[in-house]
Amino acid sequence: MATTETDIPTPALLARGPGLAPWVTALLGLLWYLAVGGGPTLDPTNLDWLGGDLSQHTLGWMHFRNAPWGFPLGRTPSLLTPLPMTVGFSDANPWVSLALKPLSPWLPRDFQFIGPWLALCFMLQGWLGARVTGLFTQRLEQRVLGGALFFLAPVLLSRTGHDTLCAQWLLTAMLWLHLRPRDGARDAWVSLGQALCVSVLAAGIHPYLLVMVFALGVALLARLVWRERLLSWRAAAAVLAVASGVPVGLFFLFGYVGQGVSAGSHGFGFFSADVLTLVNAMDWSRLVPGLPTQPGQYEGFGYLGTGVLVLVLVAPWTPKELGTRAKARLREHLPLVVCVLLLALLAFSSVVSVAGVKVLSLRKVFSPLAPLLGAVRASGRFIWPLHYAVVTGLLALTLARWRRRPALASGLLLGVVLLQALDTRELWTRDHFASAPWPRLQAPEWALVDASYRHIVLFPTYVHLSESPCVRSGFSERDAVLFADLAYRQRLTTNSGYPARVNEARVTEVCQALQSDVEQGRLARDAIYVVDPTQRESFRRLGDAVTCGVLDGFQVCVAEREGRFREALARTAPVGTSVDAPR
Q1: Is 347 within 8 Å of 273 (Cβ atoms)?
Q2: Residue scoring higher pLDDT (124 or 269)
């Protein structure tokens, strides 16, 4: 269906603009990533900036590259042994991990793809942002400037600590599919095919993004059937069946489902978004003060950016005629509007707050959906489609408002982009990708671990964020990273880790079985035990059946046996005892 508002006469000099603008904007997206300190992350052998969640994502990839091929495809049996673990549960970007696994023999041992992936996300966001802006103008500079607002979005840079969530270009792609003109049924099927491709990509990147993409895809289908009348209801039903079945199949393939791990979890209503999130800078801006929020609402961070707020302030000065056309366009895209608003309502969750003050409880509304909502406890992330829809709408309004004065529109957009960039704190501090040494054990004795050992066992088992009382110990997330790294380098298994979801009953069962084995002296002769200080007595009672020492400050024990590692370990024990040294 052709549109009239985008048919803007363009000088011959700008005829190449539509093809060039996305590539220019993608390059600017890369330059922006470098400007905020992302340069060192592009070195695939540099692990020294991968802290927090990123260390777990990296270890998920590392153990997957060592794992034999099997089903599910993303299986990583050497992590969290014997509990089920996959690249999906470790957030190790399944599509990228699968693509790189065949190349593993030729890749360096210390290899990370998270930095290059993040740079690619900024570039794709700019590329697609320029495509979206190109629906409202044919001028090269306006497409580039409008596209820049997409990679300058605070919600993108703020999520670089969780790399897979930076694939927000998937949402921008869906917006473009909604807004692009279509001339007939063939174009409609092309759009649906493209939407399915976006959904397939999302299924192998992050489940939260898949939920948003799927919802936007259903809204697109409704528009094609109801508004544009390019598809029959029967065809729409078939499309919906395929669009639902393909992601489910991929989830089985990647091991998100079918592993005996519940998708549900607590937290819905806590990791939400505040109603004022689009204008709440929190601690992002140097110019705009932040507003109070509830604990956990960092997940619902949705600040538009100081530059985009200028467009918000300019919007009320829209001529009445243009305002009428804008309302008509919103009605034309009613399925998209409803979808984005419903996702925003989900982001606000069961307890609605305004500037950190709880004003409304929707628990009765959401309670019938409780079993489903447990799988999306960080519901605040669902504010992102509204964020990008508002940016898109403001761009469309601004470009239409000054269509006959393009120099003024371009100048305004340039000012907005500069303000958006210059009011990004990380541009000045350049500490967004702060460097810290990758956690790695240093004791030379670890090099003596030979092929007769197959397991690293933390006692008790460490499962990050598990609520099972059995796994409570003095171990930290960093400790689990240290020994998972050792397990990767020595091709061992480790019983600990940081999964996105766990089966708590199974965690307790495995943990109690390990405790029973230790109490009864049934130690595995091919295991290296790392003992929490509170559990020293359990190993002291075993007497000569074990050899214990202290490596890198950790209590380490092995079953009595010959070998260079056991002998070296015995020499590290303080005089008079093998297990009493403080950590």
Answers
A1: yes
A2: 124
pLDDT at residue number 4 = 40
Beta strand pairing status for 351-354 and 546-551? Answer: unpaired
Binning pLDDT at 50, 70 and 90, where does residue 327 land?
A: confident
The residues that bridge with 558 in the sheet, in sequence order, are: 528, 547
pLDDT tens string 39-63: 999 999 999 999 889 999 999 999 9
Cβ neighbours, 10 Å, residue 547: 20
* Three-state DSSP state, 205: coil
Own/partner contacts of 404-409, CB < 8 Å, gap of 24 or more, are 406/137, 406/139, 406/142, 409/137, 409/142
pLDDT digits (tens, 9 = 90+) for 422-461: 999 888 887 888 888 999 999 999 999 999 999 999 999 9
Cα separation, 68 vs 75, in Å, equals 9
Closest Cα to residue 4, out of 128, 132, 136, 176? Answer: 136
Tokens representing residue 509 in the block: 């069962």
Give, in order, the Cα–Cα distances in Å from 231 to each of 178, 363, 420.
15, 38, 41
Confidence class of residue 132 from pLDDT cuts 50, 70 and 90?
very high
- Distance in angstroms (rounded) separating the CA atoms of residues 557 and 458: 10
Question: Residue holding tokens 């405790």?
Answer: 515
Here the tokens at position 403 are 């269509």
Rounded distance, CA 107 to CA 111, Å?
7
Residue with tokens 């992050």, as numbered in its chain: 206
Model pLDDT for residues 251-281, shown as the tens digit of each residue: 988 888 777 776 656 667 889 999 999 999 9
The separation between CA 75 and the C-alpha centre of its own chain, rounded to angstroms, equals 19
Q: Which of 317, 322, 338, 315 is nearest to 391 (CA)?
A: 315
Q: How far apart are CA 47 and CA 114, in angstroms?
A: 10
Instruction: For the chain, state the CA radius of gyration.
Output: 27
Query: Distances from the Cα of 510 to the Cαs of 12, 54, 80, 516, in angstroms?
Result: 71, 26, 10, 10
What confidence tier does 12 reach under pLDDT thresholds 50, 70, 90? very low
Question: From residue 121, how far is each of 126, 129, 205, 257 by CA, in Å?
Answer: 9, 12, 12, 27
Burial string for 433-448 (b: 16+ CB within 10 Å, else e) reads: beeeebbeeebebbee
pLDDT at 267: 66
Question: Would you say 130 and 97 are in contact if contact means Cβ atoms under 8 Å apart?
Answer: no
The answer to whether the pTM exceeds 0.85 is yes
Alpha helices in 350-422 (DSSP H): 363-366, 370-373, 384-401, 406-422
Strand order in the sheet with 455-459: 493-494, 455-459, 527-531, 554-559, 546-551
Do 188 and 228 touch, CB atoms closer than 8 A?
yes
